Amino acid sequence: MPTVEEASSPTVVLESPDIGALESQENSPPKQHPEGLMSEGGEETSSTTATAAMKLEDATSSPDYGGDSPKTIIRRNRPGTKLADFYQWPDLALEDMDTTLAVQQYIQQVIRRNPTDVEEILSMPANQDEGVWKYEHLRQFCMELNSLAVNLQCECTADTCTQMTATDQWIFLCAAHKQPRECSAIDYTRHTLDGAACLLNSNKYFPSRVDIKEQSIAKLPSTCRRVYRIFSHAYFHHRPIFDSFEDQTSLCRRFTVFVLKYNLMSPENLIVPIPGVHTPPTVQGSDYKPGETDA
Ligand SMILES: [Zn+2]
Ligand SMILES: [Zn+2]
């Protein structure tokens, strides 16, 4: 294997664009590893999972030629990078992102710049395929909703929330089973996010991330409707968790603007109020009956 070298910054600037050499770069400062550089085998073993996860999120690197000599900026958080140093690399224009993950990379870049700037995040670049744009945003929502699920499971358990509800109007059935059935709220959350991940990664419906068939795009509204219930359960049953997550991410606001903009959900199903964006319909009076739905 090539020699492991040190670099002081997470934005690794290398003289050589040789990707084989880049793969073995170690960018943690020595003080983070008091034992010094571990053997290559040990380092690789301990970081395999983290590295794989990072590659899924931002598996891109692009050459950036500047100054007197060619330099390569690696847009990747290497194992050992401090949280404060995550994503410390310069932005890249969408047209300069030459990978099949360019749209995801672009969306994540705009979110990192300012997660509360929903309008900017959802502004589709010119000449972008709208189906791919919607698909990549929904993927991103599902990834970020996993963080809300992690926060929820501190207090949302099969004992505290035996059914998936938001208001008293509906009990939502979990569609992740052969026959839709009642799952506890936290199980509904896990099963629905797993189901969404399976669908969005399915080779049958989404074999490509640059060219998506209309029939596959037609799968997106039902996924939106199901994952939205995670927001509404959190809002009506775990308000402090919802509020603190929303303060940091504006995720429910972004989701609401997204589904309204692209007609992916009917406004009457959006029951979390988003100031300046959406006011939910008032709950019907005495003529409504509680019911079950997997719609
Ligand atoms: Zn709950
Ligand atoms: Zn279930």
Automatic annotation (TrEMBL):
Keywords: Kinase, Metal-binding, Transferase, Zinc. InterPro entries: MOB_kinase_act_fam (IPR005301), MOB_kinase_act_sf (IPR036703). Zn(2+) binds at C156, C161, H233, H238. It comes from the Eukaryota. The keyword Kinase applies. Residues 44-53 have a biased composition (Low complexity). GO terms for molecular function: kinase activity. Residues 1-11 have a biased composition (Polar residues). SMART domains: Mob1_phocein (SM01388). The keyword Transmembrane helix does not apply. Residues 1-76 are annotated as: Disordered. PANTHER family: MPS ONE BINDER KINASE ACTIVATOR-LIKE MOB. This is MOB kinase activator-like 4.
